[in-house]
Every structure is written in structure tokens, then in C-alpha cells.
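In practice, a research group might receive sequence data for several interacting partners and want a quick structural hypothesis before committing to experiments. The following worked case mirrors that situation: the sequences arrive first, and a predicted assembly follows.
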Amino acid sequence: MKAREVEFEGHLIDSMIFTKALDIILDLDGEFEILEFRVGKKKDDPSYARMIVFGRDDAHLEQILKELHKIGARIPDIEEVELAEAPADKVLPDGFYVTTNHPTFVRYGGEWLPVEDISMDRVIVIRDGRAYCIPIDEVVRGDRVVVGEKGVRVVPPERPRKSTVFEFMGGRVSSERPTERMIEAIAREIYELKLKGGKIAVVAGPAVDHTSARNALAALIRDGYVDLLLSGNALAVHDIEISIFGTSLGMDICKGRPVPGGNRHHLYTISKVIAAGGIKKAIEKGIIKDGIMYECVKNNVPFILAGSIRDDGPLPEVITDVMVAKKKMKEALRGINMVIMLATMLHSIAVGNLLPSYVKTICVDMNPSTVTKLMDRGTHQAIGVVTDVGLFLPLLYLKIKEIEAKE
Amino acid sequence: MKAREVEFEGHLIDSMIFTKALDIILDLDGEFEILEFRVGKKKDDPSYARMIVFGRDDAHLEQILKELHKIGARIPDIEEVELAEAPADKVLPDGFYVTTNHPTFVRYGGEWLPVEDISMDRVIVIRDGRAYCIPIDEVVRGDRVVVGEKGVRVVPPERPRKSTVFEFMGGRVSSERPTERMIEAIAREIYELKLKGGKIAVVAGPAVDHTSARNALAALIRDGYVDLLLSGNALAVHDIEISIFGTSLGMDICKGRPVPGGNRHHLYTISKVIAAGGIKKAIEKGIIKDGIMYECVKNNVPFILAGSIRDDGPLPEVITDVMVAKKKMKEALRGINMVIMLATMLHSIAVGNLLPSYVKTICVDMNPSTVTKLMDRGTHQAIGVVTDVGLFLPLLYLKIKEIEAKE
Amino acid sequence: MKAREVEFEGHLIDSMIFTKALDIILDLDGEFEILEFRVGKKKDDPSYARMIVFGRDDAHLEQILKELHKIGARIPDIEEVELAEAPADKVLPDGFYVTTNHPTFVRYGGEWLPVEDISMDRVIVIRDGRAYCIPIDEVVRGDRVVVGEKGVRVVPPERPRKSTVFEFMGGRVSSERPTERMIEAIAREIYELKLKGGKIAVVAGPAVDHTSARNALAALIRDGYVDLLLSGNALAVHDIEISIFGTSLGMDICKGRPVPGGNRHHLYTISKVIAAGGIKKAIEKGIIKDGIMYECVKNNVPFILAGSIRDDGPLPEVITDVMVAKKKMKEALRGINMVIMLATMLHSIAVGNLLPSYVKTICVDMNPSTVTKLMDRGTHQAIGVVTDVGLFLPLLYLKIKEIEAKE
Amino acid sequence: MKAREVEFEGHLIDSMIFTKALDIILDLDGEFEILEFRVGKKKDDPSYARMIVFGRDDAHLEQILKELHKIGARIPDIEEVELAEAPADKVLPDGFYVTTNHPTFVRYGGEWLPVEDISMDRVIVIRDGRAYCIPIDEVVRGDRVVVGEKGVRVVPPERPRKSTVFEFMGGRVSSERPTERMIEAIAREIYELKLKGGKIAVVAGPAVDHTSARNALAALIRDGYVDLLLSGNALAVHDIEISIFGTSLGMDICKGRPVPGGNRHHLYTISKVIAAGGIKKAIEKGIIKDGIMYECVKNNVPFILAGSIRDDGPLPEVITDVMVAKKKMKEALRGINMVIMLATMLHSIAVGNLLPSYVKTICVDMNPSTVTKLMDRGTHQAIGVVTDVGLFLPLLYLKIKEIEAKE
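A structural hypothesis for the assembly, expressed as C-alpha cells:
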């Protein structure tokens, strides 16, 4: 039997961390004895717990401690982080540490270094005295990579307490809730975040490209509510097809019915943009006169269009190498405080994987399974709305305008 | 080898009836020889076809003719319908004819009698020289029931030709179409139907009971757009809970968050209405002050609430015997020209089964599979919209008001 | 400021009860001070907590205590339950207590009476010194009904600890899990429950009626694994249609393709069973020779077929009054230890509402949203499997047979 | 008023081509007069129709003819195809012809050239006297590109007539059909296609990677039923994780429950394969010992893993540039007779876009909307099965083995 003392501090009960700790120990067939347990007597007091954890042997104990570590357990005697060299590019030393999406610190040179660019399923390297969270494919030979859990501290975000829609809905999906009220609450969150100088990214799928939703997103960009647009080839092509031909995938967007020969508009649009030298040039030349991409370019809102194997064309601005696209997305997301995901599972999951746990996310999709999947990131900073994005966006824009008018 | 001559008349090619006829013959391993085929030379000319159908033997030929009959084939020498007596209540003679939902005529006494109250999966009886379509459980001993296909003529509706949303979308589901445009087109259909004195039934599930959608439906009733409401216990209870407590299933409908103890409101509502002696009395006594049921009662719009095994209570007006409820629904639907089905699969399918094929139906649901199922009634008079009914209804009301203002 | 002392005992942290208690107090803007908190030092030790709860005034404090009560809080000075008379049939006294689905006790005559037939959203009456949980419509004038929370004690079930699929999956949906492994685990649960003399009810929708699934369910009944079948008219009609005509809804069940004229089989089946005098008589007369209903009758497994407004016919055994059906279902479910819900949302939710929280439930449906909805009963005794019931049942039967052979 | 004579030949009525022709003319507000209409008198006789089509003016007539052309209309006086030079790489001449996925011929030098590599939404270029169907991004400066519809002939496939599952289910989705019978029919199709020397490609998503389904797919590859595997990084990583760690996304695949620290296995797997130099090398070195990728390599079945922005790693064999991946997929699909799509929307749609209309496709997914979307390719050569791929694959393998044993 091997034993080790661990301690926890924070809103232990409120955030269910202590419950999870006991669960982990029992699920792994470990034992525990609680030495001390101080619950905060008042609302804002932190709690503190100290316990001895028992394992069958060193390996078993180590396994338990690894899991406890991930939810914030501290092993009182502070040790330096353990490092090992990467033997080749993209090749990692044995037992390398895999990151969570929570804020993380490593004990290095007697100090707690914050890990920069934290996001999940990556590794930590120390370069020039700073700790970076990087994907496998950016590891270069000789990189000093963190191995094991020693000297690594994870700080899961506390549950939001003040009265916001995130606090109320945090981590849940609203398929039974009144959609219009949810949209009002989200409009308020967006408005207040922008008031405080926050930054918002929009991740959008091609379903956004029907008249009213497209116009609403274009208006949100024009009015300064969007700081970054992440999407793919299809969204841009459909958006530009509307501007050039007045059709979306060959359908007249005003009458909502197919235009004869309209299916060709899709490829004709791509060809026109390629001939012009890209989206920006096509806007300069007056070929594209309105819409989502137009407003991005005119208002200097950066956009990243990542390629997929479904793409026709693609448009010149599309980044066809997915690893390059992913890297650019990661960089562009730095400093973003909220991400609004609109009707795209692939892009939303990809972006979700690149975000730290404290970035607020709002996921909107008609399919409840998609929303549930997107929400499953172990964070209270996400809300899911199961609704029709084609009606959601115009209403969101209207609600924001109403709030603007009132304040 | 047995042969028989059959003939078809109408928009044969356009409505794919001729294609189906050949399909049926070949699927059943029959043979055919076309004797005459006149295609209408202009848009509105009917076509005419005459052919010999071959079967291996009498039974095989009969089988083929049975199927051809259902899509409108006529066997030129006109025979009287064949009748047989029901040996006991609810017991049918062998080989009884099963109805489709298309307009149907029977040759009786040398005349073509229209079959009254036609709807699918029922039987035809002749009473006092008139032909009625009735369900099995209404057959009484001695009823003269139609057996076989002889002397029965089915007239499937032609595809709508003029430029309406039914012609355009007829029989299809709009999950990829711009929702807002669809709603506009539906608003126009409703407006024009009412202008011409048409009658509209609404079939609604409890998902309608969130503030804006509920208010929109109540307003549509108040403004005379609804002639009949078909629903269940839950819709009425939630609607009344909002009126009495301001909550829906215990959630504050303005703030969209649960009210402490709110889960009790559901049963308290039921209890209050029972104590008052029913919905109508509760409105008279001023207990219920607004909402869907309130507007129905105040505007003399009939409603039928059919019971289900999920019901709490139920409210006194709920018909707990499903066969009684079904019979009342069938009667109330007589003369209805359009049915709007809102977020309820059980009630929508039940109502769909009671309708002739020429009644227009609009099905709205968030789940594409539900809409597809509801559409599957062999008619071009149905359109399906995959969207959030909570946003659909307020927008529909708005669009109708815009049309009213313009005209 | 008003204050009251409350206490909790049990696996407080493990079952998250303490977390919920603090949540409730803070959500309602109350305050608390923890007086004592003893965490069980070992796995099986219960925990104990005592705290003072503060409210703004009596009403506010009462509101908080009501909510705490529902999760098991005790107010140390024990008071008798408060009763009030029902002024008329189905009419309840003000402030009546609404039940949860957890085991509940009331303090009456100085003793703790267990509330019989507990299930959610009902009321408690005291009759002849015993406490009964009954629906509103069974309340009769003069019944002594529990009002308020005083003297009522709710005991939410502890989370299952031993290594079963319920412990592992408890309260979760398996859309990402290996279906075959899940089925194996469920087969073992069923086998072991029956070994111990447990009783199993099956709730089944008509989707079960395709060859292999129907045969598997019939075999499970024959082999004694089913003690009660709850379903509707459609399941029975399709099952019997297969036995009489070899078709299901007109499709040849061996070749999987429609049989000419097969759509009539549905009504012909109903007519034959009505003519025979019901399902049992039709089996006696040799009209029905195999299948689900056949095995129920032959093996004396009771079945309840509840009517719905979609029903054709219906068959004579169908209970067309939903309140009567519900009452019979409630009675039949007494003593059942596990309920398997197969591809039917309406019946599954109805049955779920009739069950105490400690009855194990297994929900199988292709639609993840349906499963999620069915699981949402505040219990760890439920598991959901998102899969095709047509493949699930044959495999389940196979796995049970493999376990039988091994043991 | 402008007029032009057109003619049609083939199974016009049976394939609904004539119906569609009339629809097109009427939808575009054109007029027609039928000059001749000969229906095949016997089952296998082709039909022939000749009609005059009227348009308001040249442009209108041209528009109608364009649409008629796409469904196979011939304009009797045969003209050479019209060509125009591409002014720059990836830049197309005005009015370029956009391909369908049906077999297509162009009239060039007095002869009908078959268009090679036909698939939808591409362009046709003439190079060295041969006609090629290529995507926009492969057009090079100076390419002679087909413009307009003149001299282009499209031959939509006739509906399958012999009694196969494709004939029966062609173009439809089986959510109400008995799954087990469908699987049997598909097993027979696969077996017979391989007997005749046909080639089968499998497109698979990561949901396949649960024990039984993975083992079944591996066995199908080993037994020679798969000639090409198209997938992404995730499928390969999970498959290899099972081989190395016995877990899939950190879950024990035998017990179906998470393994402590198992979430790391995902990245550890990627790292091990990168370190080995790729999948093939890792198999050679004995690191990977079984599974889908193992069988591909051991049995020389080519595989293409296309990258996506969700990918971790990725594995060295993954093609991260989507346009390169797409081109390789197109090449590999040459000569494939059947494609089985398993639980992946992105890859299935991408592959569907690369296929000619006569390649048989079988789409399996749990989500009915996904299957419906995949089927929507205007072909009768597709069948969709809504079921659980985790149970589908083992059963499919079993059924194929049963057929093998019998024959």
C-alpha cells in the first residue's frame, strides 16, 4: 500500500471538484482518508481539503495522482517540472504530458510559469524560459518537453456566479427553452462584451447563406460586433453568388425558388473570383458589392477560410493545407473572448479544440446532437441553442439594435 | 394468359400516373400492350391511354387490376359496385374495399355516387342511397359494405399548376430553403385562403407554449385566422399556467429561467381549472386572462383536446376516450381547407389520417424526420418546413400583418 | 432576516446533494453558515452536515426550505405532516404537496409512514392510517391531502456503487459507446436480475415489428425474461399481420418488399381479430400462430395496450380511455424492477412518469434526442442506448443465450 | 415566338424523363406541341418522342433547351461542340459548360467523344483529340474548354430493371424497412459484384472504430471485399490506438469503459506512429498488429487519408492539402463499381461528388438527415440505410460469410 498527501483549494463543493476527486479515487479502486476539510462558511469563502490517497503500489498510486492532478489537486511538496528532449522533429519523449484546455502552470526554475496558448490535446515545451502549449507537429528536435504530471498545475475555471446567461445556462443545451428569450440574453452578452472592449469570433457554416441570415451577419460585421470570421470555401462562394447572381446554390433568394440554369452560378461565381485574383480584388473591382465577405474586407475584419475535400474551386483565399489553416486559426483566436458557432459541426469542433476553457462559446444548430457534441468540452462557459440559424441571426441583430437604442 | 382492357384519362404524364401504371404491371410480372396513347398537345389538354393488361391467370390479372384501380384506371365496361352485408357490429365481409384518401366514387344504381367523408384506411358503406366512408368501429350489423374494386373510381388530385407555394414545394420538405421566404409564402397562402372564405385548422403541440409563439398563436385566433384548434392536455395546461403563474413548466417565461417551486405550478394549474369546473368556466370567473385557450373561448373557435397516456390531470375538457376524440376530430375537420401542424407528431399523423388528399397541409417541426413522415401522404398538397416553431409563429404573424397592411 | 437550522445525512458529496443544497440557497439569494461538516473518512461512511439557512423574511426562508426539502434536507425538530381536506372530487386544498419520484415518508401519528405507489407529479393522501401517492383524478371529496413540506421526508437514491452498467453509464446516453459491448452488459444485467427473481417490463413501439426484432422479443417472452408488456394498438396489429399474412404494413417481411394489395392486410388483420372476438380468442381459434402477442397469451405474460388517436380499429383488447389505461399500467408496474423501453417516445415517457426513481430503466431508440428526453428523470438508474432496435433485440437475445450457456 | 424541334429516345415514361421534360417547359413558361409519341409496346421497347418547343424569344428558347439538354434531349441537326480558350490558369471562358454526373459525349470532329472521368460540377476540355472532365483548378492557360450546350449529349442512366436491391430501393432511404433484410440484400449485391470481378471502395468515418465493427471491416479487407479505403486521420488513429493500447479514445474496447489516463492514448498513438516513420513502417516494426490499417497494408489495399482541420497530429500518411487529397481520391476511384459509405458525412459527400452517376452507392448512417443528403445525387443507383454502423458491419460480414458458405 502506498500513500501520498494531496490538497485542494477553491470552491470545492460548489464546483463539484471534491465530488470528482472522490469519484476518481473510488473508480480506480483506491482508498482515501480525509485529514482536513474546511468548507467556506460564507458565499465567497474558498474551501480547503487535505487527504491521504492510497494505492496498491507505486504505479497504482501514480495513476490515481495523475487523474487527481487534472482536476486541480496539488501535491504539497513542490517539485520542478520534469523535462525530456524531443529526439527528432515531431517525435516526443516517452510519457509526455498531454494538455487540458484549462489554464495551466509549470514549476520551472523555482517559479510557476503560465503555459502560453493553452488548448487541449497538445504538449508543453520550455523555450527560452517560457512555457508554450504546441501541437505535436510543431515539436522540433531538441525541444524540452514536459513529461509526467510533476510540477504541473491545472486551474479549472470556477463556475460563473453573477447573473448572466452563461451562469444560468452554463454547459447546457436549450432545446426546451424559449428561443426568443435565449436570443435576447445572448444579444445582451454580446453587447456588454463589446462595451468592455471584448473580442468576438464567428464560426459560420454555409447554412448562414440565406437572405436574412446573411444580411444579418453582414450587418453585425459592419456594426463592429465581429472581430474574426472563421469559415470555409462554401460560405464564401454562396455569399458571393448572392451578390453577383442574386441566387444561392442556384435558387433565387428573393422568391426562394430555383432559377433556370442556376446550378451553374456556383461554378461561374468561383471562376469570376479566380479570374479577378481573389475575393479582395473582386471587391475592389466592384464585382462583389455586398454581403459577408464584402463587409469583412471593407471593415478590415480578418477572415480565415479553411479548405475541405468537399470544396469546388476553391477560391484563392482558401487555405488548402489544413495544418496551415489550423495554425492560422490558432493565432487569430489569441485574445478572442467569445466565439459564436453557427451551423457548422466541422469548423466548430476544430475551433473548440483550439480554445482555452475560459473563452465563452455560443453554439447554434438545428440538430440537437450537434449542439450536444459541441458543448462537451468540460466548461461552464458554453451555451447551446437548438434553433434555426436562418431565423436566429436576424432576430439576434434586431435584439442588439434594440439594446443599442435603449442605452 | 388472361387479358383485360383498361383506360386512363387526365394529366397522365405530368402526374406520373402512366409511369406508375407501367411500374405496377412490371413489378407484378404482368405484361401490357398499349393500344392507344394520346398526349395532350397543349398545356391544358388531358391525355388518354388505352392498353391491354395480361396476367398469368384470373387471380394474377385481378391482382394487377386492383393496383391499377387505385391510381385511377378504369375498366371500360361499367359495372355496379359489389356489396356484402356486415355479419355483426365492427365485423366486415371478406374482401372489403379499403379506402385511399383521394376523392372516390362508387357506381350504384347506375349512377356515380361520391363517397362522403373520404379518408384513408377506412371502408365504404351504402346507407339510404348514399355512400359513406367510415372507420371499422362504426360498422354496424347489416351495413352494406363495398367489397372488391368493381364499380369504384378513385380520382387522385392533379398536381397544382398555378404559381403557389404548394405548387412549388408540393410534397417536399424545406430543410435547405430560406426559412424566412417560406414563411412569407405561407403567410400569403393563409391570407388569400381566408379572403376567399376558406377555413383553417391548427394542430399544435406543447412546444408552442413559449411566450412569443403562444402570443402569436393567440393573436392569430383573435384575428380570425384559425377556425379550429386540435391539440391535447399539455398545450392547454402550459398555456393556462402562463396565464395564471407567468411560468411554463415552472420556468419564468420572461426571464427564461426556473422559478423556485415552479414545478408545482403545473399541477396547481390543473387543480385550479378542475376546481373552477373547466377551461370555459375558469375564463368566465377571470382565472384565465389571456392566451391560446382564452382566445378560442372568447372568439368561439372550437377546440378539441384529445387525451394521451402522458397526461396529468387531465383538464375537464380533455376527451379521454381516444376513439370518441377521433370521431369528434373527424367531424370538426369537415369543410376545413388547410391544416397547419405545429411541432406535434402524434396529433399531426392522427389528423393527417383523417383528411382527404386535397386539403392543404403545412407541417412545421425542428426534426426533419418528423416532417418527412408527416409529408408521406401521397399528396402534392403538403409542404414541410424544418424550423423552430418558437420563431416560426411570431414571424408568420408579422408577415400576415404586413400583407394585411399592404392590401 | 429569518434563520432556520437544517441537516443532511448520507453520501452527501458523492451524490452531489451538498453541492445542490448550496446552489439552491445561493440561487434563491439566501445565505448560509455551515455549523458542522463531517465527511465520511472511508468509502462507506455517510457524511453529515448541519447549517443555518438565512432568508429575508418568513416567506423567503420558507421558499428556500421547500427546495432544500426536495433534496433530502431535514429540519431537526420533527413536526407532524400537515393535512387538509379535499373540498370536492378531484379538487385539491391550497398549497398541496406535489410528489417527486423518490422514496418518500410522511410523519403521521408520531411515526414515519412510507408513501405507497410513489411516482412524480402526484399528491399524497392519508387513508386508514396509510399514506398513498395518487393522481389528481383519483382524489375524492374528504380525502386528507398533504399540504406544505412539513413532516415530509424525501430519500433520493444513492448513486450505485458496485460495478454494473448502471453504475458506469448511470444517467447517461451512449451514442459514442460501442453498441455491442453495451448490449452485452445489458444482457448480463437482465440475466442476473431474473436469477434473483426480479421482474422486467417491456415498453415497445411498432418499430419492433420487423422479422428479427419481433422474433427476438417473442423469444424473450417465451423464455421468461418478460413479466409485463406495455404497448399500443399498432404493435399488436403489425405483429398479428405478420402471423396471418406474412407482411408488416403490407411489406413481405422475408423479402423486405411490398406485396401487392398488402396495404389492405393492416385493416384485414384488425377485422379478423375483431370478428374472432379479440386477440386471445383469435389465438385459441388458431388464427394467430406466433409472435409477440401469441407468446404473451401462451405464457400468461400480462399485456396492456393503451389507445391513441392514431389507432385504426382498434383491436378489442385496446383500452381506449387513456386514464383507465394509465391506471392499469400503474397497477401492473407495481413490483417491477426493470423497464426496457424500445423505440416509443409516447409510451416510454408515460411509463417513466409512473415509476419510482429506483426502478432501473433501459431506453433504446435511434433518435438521440428521444433517448436524452427519456433519461431526464433525475435518476442514476437509467441508461440510454442510441441504436437501431431492429438489430438491438436479436443481438440482446443472442447475448443472453450465450450467458445462459456459459453459466 | 421562337420554336425548335427536339427529340427524346429511351425508356421515356418509365424513367420519368418525358414528365420532367414537360415540367421544365411549363416551369419556364414555355409552350410545346407534341408531334409524335411512340410508347414501346412491350417491356423492353424504347419509346420515342418528338416535339416543338416554343419560347418568347431566342434567349428564352435557349434557356429552355439548356435545361432539356441536361435530361437527354437531342436537337436533331447535329452540331459540333463549341470551344473557347482558357485565358489563364484556372480562369474559364464565359458561358463554360458545367458537367452533370451522367455519362456525357461531345460532338467533335464529326464524332461523338465520350467525356472521360465524368463527375458533377466540373468542366470539359479537349486535349489531343480526347474529351476530359476536370475541376476548375486543373484548367491551364490555353485549354480548349466546352462552352454552351451545343454538341453535348448527356445520357442519364435508365432505371435498373432486374430484381436487385438497387432496383427495389433505388434512390430511397430505408428508415422504416427491416434492417436485417436490407443487410442481407446488400451482402448479396457485394458478393455478386465481387464474383463478377467488380471493385468496391469503402468510405469510413471514425464511428466504425468500435470493436466489432472495426474487426468486421478488417475482415472484409482481409477477405478481399474491399479494393480501396477512403478516410481521414481519426479513423486511422483510433484503429491503431485499439491495436497498441486496446482502447478507443481512451475507452477499454472490451469492457466499454474509460481507462484511467486513456485520453492520452490518442496522442501517444500518433506520436508512436510518427516516430516509427508512418503507418506502414509501424506495421513492419510490429508496433501495429491488427485492425483496419493493418489489413490494408498487409493485403495491398490502397488507402487515402484526407486531412481536416479537426485532426490531431496528423499521421504521416495523411494528405494535409485537401486539393491534393481530392485529386488522389478521384484517380483512385477510377474503375470502382460500388462505394459503401459508413457514418461520415464529409467524406461521403466529397466522394459522391467525384463519382459518375452509374456507380452504385450504399450509405449507412444513424442520422436520417445525413442519409437523405447523401442520396440526393439524382441517381437510382444509391440506397440509404438508417442504422447503427456498429451493428451493421458485423452483421454484413456474417451475411456475406453465409452466402459464401452456401454457394
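Before designing any experiment, note the following. Chain D has a mean pLDDT of 87. Chain D has three domains: 1-76, 78-156, 165-406.
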